[in-house]
Amino acid sequence: MSFQPQFPGIFTPAQGATPVQHDLPLTQPLAATEKQIAYARILAAKSHRALPQGITQDRAKLSAWIDAHKAPAPKGKFDNYPSSKQVAFAERIARLKRRDVPRECFHDRTLMSRWIDGNKPR
Question: Maximum CA pair distance of the chain?
Fold first, then answer.
């Protein structure tokens, strides 16, 4: 037999316990950082838009606004080339299989990936 004390009604509002308030948020949103605000103002000035009212009070909302309004990264000349790790892995596979990696694979990352998938040792 275990000892478990019984205290009926100890947490009922009738006996003086405070009621639970469901309308209060559990956590307040974090305020945006100064760098975020400065970057958002630069983006707003470039696009001739105003920042939405009160957005600097919520870090997550400002981050989403920045992501939606920033310019995409410019495409570089070598963006479609395979990475150095891809090339090294392909050359290692080629040594193991005693064959060459096709020359066109060195100019296209998709072709290199397909060649690796088709030739990697199982």
Answer: 84
pTM of the model: 0.44
Range of the domain at 63: 30-71
Residue found under tokens 């696009």: 47
Which tens digit of pLDDT belongs to each residue from 1-49?
566 667 666 665 555 555 555 666 667 888 889 999 999 999 999 989 8
Q: Convert the pLDDT of each residue in 71-81 to its tens digit.
A: 887 888 888 99
Burial class (CB in 10 A: 0-12, 13-18, 19+), 111: middle
The reply to whether 78 falls in a domain is no
Contact 32, 65 (CB under 8 A): no
| CB atoms near residue 109 (< 10 Å) | 17
Residue 104 within any structural domain of the chain? yes
